[in-house]
Design brief:
Blueprint lengths: L23 H7 L6 H33 L8 H48 L3 H6 L2 H43 L1 H8 L2 H38 L1 H6 L3 H54 L4 H42 L21 E8 L13 E8 L4 E5 L6 H6 L9 E6 L2 E2 L5 H6 L1 E4 L10 H6 L7 H10 L3 H6 L17 H15 L3 E5 L7 H15 L3 E5 L11 E6 L2 E6 L1 H7 L2 H22 L1
Parallel strand pairs: 3-8, 3-9, 6-7, 7-8
Antiparallel strand pairs: 1-2, 1-4, 4-5, 9-10
Length: about 625
């Protein structure tokens, strides 16, 4: 569980190739803006108008200067007054359209990010347990939050600024040349140097930004593990280990963030020097032209404002370029997940399964978790041949690691067999749509997972369209109705994260109610009573017996005394079914089952004796 102290863990295989940060990923990202194209067009028009108006005011400002200083002693203030009123009108319109473009394009960005989050989360839910076994939950949630948040900046603010600054740059350059061609050549000579610097440093910023995102994701994954398992952490007094492990991940992300900050600061400093250095030279040369009488003071001021606009837009575009570099790293991590495909392929011609009878048949089934059937020695299951008629109750027993849980996990197709075939109602499960197959299977595990809503919401998870009466009927059948009604808020009681506000027996009975409401044809009970006290176990066992009626049921038994009445008992050892029969038949046969039963019986007798003596 724990990594070596002093070395941060990573969610990525260091030997695995990094995904290519293809700029086309940003085009995939912008494709999510297609539903908002009308709003985007309106925002773009507002941007054009606002940027165009901003290009007018330097010209008017220059005229204002000439009207003030070239007509010294004149009492006619009409031109001056008209110019000021026109300037105020230009400023008002520019502000109005600027606010409109900011809102409209930000609306597009927010919509794109919301759609992207929904799309990514929906895609994750389609992936198989194998994928989630290979990826930490914290890393996946980091991509849903931090990475998509980085993308949001680009698809909203940065996108709006890119449009506005591009229009300003083109317009300012044209007006710059029209105002003074000589000074324009002097000013524009520095632009290639600015762009080259931006590209050179920007590539390094993109690489470091990806390192920051990976480091933050790794730290989040460690934190998520520690928080979800806080009771284990505290019981082992391992707070220091987890604090050190998370701290190491934060240090890695901090150092990477510092490298990125240094590169961004270097770029900003170089851009600032080149921009304002060029303006100083322009002011020196333009001043000489004014002194020579070849340029008016107003024209010089107009030119300087346009030159400042050019410098400002180039600097802004450089910043936007940095944001796009960061977004490129984030989008590569997002689309890396979007491009993941489930290892449980959908059938080419799926067979509908509206209501199964419940017959389950294993035909020479073998399974390895690496998916390679060639290595028989690594197989978790070997040549399983079992035919379970509909409605039969089958118990699975055997030592730890015998393959019992893997056996039942193949039925809802959490994994695909690597050899042989698994059939439900005579058809290979790979021929059914996954949703149809899993709709027929109910699972009550040993460690019950409840969601952090109300009791009613957790029961409704079995069938969201059920009526309140059906919910209560399911709770009564699960022996849960009485303790639920005893709560102050009854069925509206919030159970807390993972059902932490309920006892183990209460959580298990809510899970049984959920399964009863689903009404599956095939039921899987994975040691559903092993962690309960005697009183809770009797209540849960009674609820389970109601649930098992008229269903094909697979029971993984912890206490062999609870499965005496099973129609059939499969004894597993080392991935094989070594015995098959009823409780009485297996005891009479004198094999592994009798050894396990007698061992457990002696342990229970000794425990009772110690309890009496105590």
């Amino acid at each position: 569980m724990f990594s070596r102290p002093g070395r941060p863990t990573s969610t990525r295989d260091p030997d695995a190739p990094r995904p290519k940060r293809d700029p086309r990923q940003l085009m995939r990202l912008l494709a999510y803006a297609r539903p908002y194209r009308v709003i985007f067009i309106l925002g773009a028009l507002a941007t054009l108008i606002s940027s165009g108006l901003n290009l007018v005011f330097p010209l008017l400002f220059g005229r204002l200067i000439d009207a003030s200083f070239l007509k010294v002693g004149s009492t006619d203030t009409g031109p001056l007054d008209r110019t000021v009123l026109l300037l105020l009108g230009i400023f008002a319109l520019s502000s109005l359209f600027g606010a409109a473009q900011s809102y409209l394009l930000s609306r597009v960005g927010a919509g794109v990010v919301a759609d992207l989050r929904r799309s990514l989360f929906s895609h994750l839910l389609t992936l198989s347990p194998r994928f989630f076994g290979d990826h930490k939950t914290g890393d996946l949630t980091s991509r849903l939050t931090a990475d998509v948040g980085t993308v949001q900046t680009v698809t909203s603010t940065a996108l709006a600024q890119l449009a506005a600054q591009s229009v300003s740059l083109v317009g300012a350059v044209i007006l710059l040349v029209l105002t003074s061609a000589r000074l324009s050549l002097l000013t524009l000579a520095v632009i290639p140097l600015i762009i080259g610097t931006a590209i050179f440093i920007g590539r390094r910023i993109r690489r470091v930004s990806r390192e920051v995102q990976d480091a933050v994701a790794a730290a989040n994954a460690n934190a998520e593990e520690a928080i979800s398992g806080v009771r284990v952490v505290q019981s082992f007094t391992a707070e220091g280990v987890e604090r050190h492990r998370y701290g190491q991940g934060i240090v890695v992300s901090f150092l990477a963030a510092l490298r990125r900050a240094r590169l961004q600061a270097l770029m900003g400093g170089v851009m600032s020097f080149l921009t304002f250095g060029a303006l100083a030279v322009v002011l020196w040369y333009g001043g000489r032209q004014v002194m020579a009488g070849s340029m008016t003071p107003g024209n010089l001021v107009t030119f300087l404002i346009y030159a400042l606009q050019v410098g400002g837009t180039v600097a802004a575009l450089t910043g936007i370029f940095n944001q796009f570099q960061e977004a490129l790293g984030a989008s590569s991590r997002i689309f890396e997940l979007m491009d993941e495909r489930s290892d449980l392929p959908a059938p080419a011609a799926p067979l509908p399964l509206a209501r199964a009878e419940g017959r389950v048949e294993f035909r020479d089934v073998s399974f390895t978790y690496d998916g390679d059937s060639a290595f028989e020695g690594a197989a978790v299951l070997r040549h399983i041949n079992v035919d379970v008629p509909a409605g039969q109750v089958v118990a699975l027993v055997g030592p730890s690691g015998a393959g019992k849980t893997t056996f039942v996990n193949l039925i809802p197709r959490f994994w695909d067999v690597t050899g042989g075939s698994l059939r439900v109602d005579g058809q290979d499960v790979r021929e059914y749509p996954l949703t149809d197959l899993r709709a027929q299977v109910g699972l009550v595990p040993q460690e019950t997972l409840l969601f952090s809503g109300t009791v009613r919401e957790n029961i409704l998870y079995g069938r969201p369209d059920a009526s309140p009466g059906e919910v209560e009927a399911a709770a009564k059948a699960a022996n849960a109705h009485d303790f639920i009604r005893a709560f102050e808020h009854g069925y509206e009681t919030v159970v807390g994260e993972r059902g932490v506000k309920l006892s183990g027996g209460q959580r298990q009975r809510v899970a049984i109610a959920r399964a009863i409401l689903k009404d599956p044809r095939i039921l899987i009970l994975d040691e559903a009573t092993s962690a309960l006290d005697n009183e809770s176990e009797s209540l849960v066992q009674a609820a389970l017996e109601r649930l098992m009626q008229h269903r094909t049921t697979f029971v993984i038994a912890h206490r062999l005394s609870t499965i005496r009445n099973a129609d059939r008992i499969l004894v597993m050892n080392a991935g094989e079914v070594v015995e098959d029969g009823t409780h009485a038949e297996l005891l009479a046969r004198g094999g592994l089952y009798r050894d396990l039963y007698e061992l457990q019986f002696r342990q229970e007798q000794e425990a009772q004796a110690e309890l009496v003596q105590g």
